[in-house]
Each structure stands twice: as C-alpha cells, then as structure tokens.
Amino acid sequence: MDAIRARAGKQGVSAYIEEAVQRQLQREAVDEYVAAAEAEHGPVDPAEVAAKAERIRAYHAAHRGDAAPADAA
User: Is this structure's pTM higher than 0.70?
Assistant: First the structure.
C-alpha cells in the first residue's frame, strides 16, 4: 500500500486503483477478443504482426517528419 500511496499522489489511492483496474479489464477484454479471433481464424502470424507494426511506425515517423527508432513500438 505504501508504494501505491507514493505513486497515487494528489489523485488519491482510490482513483489510482480504479485506473489500474480499468486497465486490467481492458487487457482482459483484448485477450478475450484475440482468443475468440484465433479460435475462429487460427493463430496470428508473428511475422505479419511485425510487418504491420513496422508499417505503422513508418507511417507515424513520416507524419512526424522524422525517422522512428528501430525499437520503437
């Protein structure tokens, strides 16, 4: 609890915990969505995911006017 109080600051412990729970619920919803999609369509191809992530990084780098670092995600 001390670590939570230290990080919560002015927003307070209750608000901090509520935000953490909301993030966890979002992660679980995404995990459920991915599991359902994989059950219907098969597993995700890691190479395809990496290629799409690179295209997204390149798009954002081009629109920022700079080059994205190779390890940016």
Answer: no
CB 68 within 8 A of CB 57: yes
CB distance 3 to 15 below 8 Å: no
Residue 64 pLDDT: 84
CA distances, 47 to each of 16, 51, 61, 68 (Å): 37, 6, 21, 19
Residue 25 and residue 59: Cα distance in Å, rounded? Answer: 30
Q: Is 42 helix (H, G, I), strand (E, B) or coil?
A: coil
Contact 17, 4 (CB under 8 A): yes
